[in-house]
Amino acid sequence: MSTIWDQLNAHHRAIAPRSIAGLFDQPDRATRFSAQAGDLFLDYSKTNLDEKALGLLIDLAQDAGLEQRRAAMFRGDKINATENRAVLHTALRSPETAPLVVDGADVRPEIAKTLTRMERFAAAVRSGKITGQSGARFTDVINIGIGGSDLGPVMATQALAPYHDGPRCHFLSNVDGAHAADILRGLNPETTLVIVASKTFTTIETMTNAQTVLDWLRAGIGAEIGAHLAAVSTALDRTTKMGIHPERVFGFADWVGGRYSLWGPVGLPIMLAVGGKCFRALLAGGHAIDQHFQTTEPRQNLPLLLALVGVWHRNICGYGTRAILPYDQRLGQLPAYLQQLDMESNGKGVGEDGAALAQKSGPVVWGAPGTNGQHAFYQLLHQGSDVIPAEFLIAAQGHEAALAHHHDLLKANCLAQSEALMLGRPFEVALELAGQLGFAGDAQRQQAAHRSFPGNRPSITLAYPKLTAFTLGQIIALYEHRVFVEGVIWGLNSFDQWGVELGKELATNLLPMFQGGAIENKDPSTVQLIKKLS
Ligand code: F6P
């Protein structure tokens, strides 16, 4: 009996000669292959998906148990089986009050309490009520964290720059001393607040950077640095050991994965930058998508559709990467954020049962904002030998009313790219062009070969009115749920990250070898490199 995967593959083979552009012979193609959720409009009509493929993909998701898995996640079941944890970042952005029970206790009151504590703290820092040791107002915040304790706040703080009316925020993540040195160089310890953000409070990069910054504070203002410190963690015993007063510690539970954590205390730098009201708008945006995801029928369900496009491209078309191309300078960090969200969640080789996956899982996620990318790597998108599905993001309006002409150019460029990817430029057209440019004979044909574009390259476009906090919340939640749906279809656990552990262990083992210890049990290449670098 053929499986849905078989049927999808057979359909794909059958439609192989067909072009994406040709699908628009169907007059309502553009509207049929788009959907709206809140502020977000997804156009996926410039892909090779048709009714039959979409129907099969929806069946695939249902067959994988999507509805049950989704209900289990929102209900607080321990769907992160390898870590025996619930997955409830959605609860951090939910205004609902009905009890949500994990391990016998309702988690809602604690979430609300922590949010209120964060708001009070952020408001007091922003207003100058909470000051540094000398009574001077905080002008700068350093958030020390890495991975999920860094990428979300970095991305969202930049995205919400128009609303930024709090202290300047700096993000120290890399253990490379250059990062600490470059950030500290410009700062005054007397007016700097330091947040140590680490879910586990054991991450070596963050602990090392924290000690360096604590020493810098002590050198600048003396031994009493408590007024300059706050922490974000699930490990409250460890924060106390670092000398951070419990009132300055914002905790969260183990059911919030690092890469899903910006909605809670990890979002403290965002709140310090833009204020509690704006942060709540971000949460509301995320929650709006949670509701949409749970209640909307498949053909209009944005996270589901985005995931199905992803599975189609990854598994059926065999494309190994996806490019995230925000035509929104302030979403410059979105590709890096989505890299962790997507690749740490779905970059796995075994299913929930520990058996090898039957299908390929997460693709390589990469990207950069347009229009800059156009002048760097788009050459390969248009004429390279690999097909790379492109995912464009674009706002109807920018925040800079006086620079509306810039925004028109931005929009024109964004749409030009998806049009060029789909339509390309046929050889005959390029030949004519080369002729107009004065080329003839062989030279004309040669020029035409270089100037023609294959086209038929898929892209999707996510359009929104303006990048507000509410919209940003929707965008992030949309991608979170996309990752979830894809993980369900591939049958893997999107919420653990065992693949990062081996490197950490080996780094711990290697460190003494750079500090005069014996070089033992290492392959010849590694031995050679240790010697070269010592
Ligand atoms: O190394 C991977 C990872 O565990 C991520 O999942 C996490 O976001 C990051 O490290 C930071 O972890 P922590 O917040 O515990 O310092």
Fill in the keyword field for this structure.
single chain, 534 residues, alpha/beta, Rossmann fold, 3 domains, six-stranded mixed β-sheet, 47% helix, 11% strand, binds 6-O-phosphono-beta-D-fructofuranose
- N-to-C span: 61 Å
What ions, cofactors and ligands are bound?
6-O-phosphono-beta-D-fructofuranose
Strand order of the largest sheet: 1-2-13-12-10-11
CATH topology term of the largest domain: Rossmann fold
Give the biggest beta sheet: 6 strands, mixed
Per DSSP E runs of 2 or more residues, the count of β-strands stands at 13
Description of the structure:
It is a single chain. By secondary structure, the chain is α/β, with parallel strands linked by helices. The chain folds into 3 domains: 33-63 and 282-497, 3-Layer(aba) Sandwich (Rossmann fold), CATH 3.40.50.10490; 104-279, Rossmann fold (3-Layer(aba) Sandwich); 499-533. 47% of the residues lie in helices and 11% in strands. A 6-stranded mixed beta sheet has the order 1-2-13-12-10-11, sandwiched between helices. Strands 6-5-7-8-9 form a 5-stranded parallel beta sheet, sandwiched between helices. It has a two-stranded antiparallel sheet with strand order 3-4. α7 (151-159) runs antiparallel to α14 (334-346) and α11 (268-274) crosses α12. It is globular. The model has no long low-confidence stretch (mean pLDDT 97). Residues 146-149, 198-200, 203, 206, 258-259, 344, 497, 500 line the site of 6-O-phosphono-beta-D-fructofuranose.
